[in-house]
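The records we work with from here on pair a chain with its fold. These numbers are not coordinates but entries in a learned vocabulary of local backbone shapes. To see the layout at work, look at the sequence and tokens printed below.
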Amino acid sequence: MVTRFRPLEAGEPVGVVALSGPVDPEALAGGLAALWETGHPVVVAPNVQDRWGYLAGEDGRRLEGLLHVLDAGARVVVAARGGYGVSRVLDRMPWERLVRDGVVFVGFSDLSSLLNHLAGRGGAVQVHGPMAAVGLARPANRDRLLAVLEGRLAGRVLFGFGPGRVVRPGRARGRAVGGNLTVLCSTLGTPWEPDFEGSVLFMEEVGEPLYRLDRLLTQLRASGKLDRVKALIGGSLRGCKPASQREETWNRLLREAAPPGVPVVSGLPFGHGARNQAIPVGATVEVDTGTGRITWGD
């Protein structure tokens, strides 16, 4: 994986696209307002309020929306929301252009496959973080995202955590890979499967019963994709039930999935929870459970 990072510059436009599900207009308005408050011009894809069943327009229409914001000069592209739809258009994405122009996507959930693949094929460092209609209106999420995009966290601490978050102690250094657990598993055996080797693997989920988390992690482990990961990092599990057993079960599953000696940290604020702290996907990160820090290493 060869990744590059170029900070968002003052006055540089930011695009907003809808590559997945239909977008709630009120939620979108709040996120767009938050983006305008950063001082960056905002270019919105024409299909952002389209609805075609469970998608924000037909496949071609959603891709046209992306090309519109790219043609308007946006290098940083924020997803309006996730849901489902990105996987339908991965085979038609303008990958060469995205790599050449150093395009940075911001999103999570359904965007996980896009973020990891683009970083993995030599594109820019991508950002797993809040989307225009999902979390960006919260000032803390917006400010953290801006700090990542502007490079103010490069070489600095991304996450600090106490001993209660340490499932297995240790130190590790590797490429940040990951996102939504279901989406990651759905890429296995496809051209969009991330390169897990040597990675610090971040995983989060929403609304899944605990037995399904077990099934997903068991699939990852049985596939051999976890054999050479450097660390496992667990994020939000909003709505995963039963809640009374969630933390204990998830930590046990992570311990079982991780190779011997690999550090495991759980319960960090990224993913579908209210706090969704942006992560630079494809960047080198360092994990140190002794100091309770995950640092952006380059």
The first strand starts at residue 14 and ends at 17. The two ends are 14 Å apart (CA to CA). The chain is about 30% helix and 20% strand.
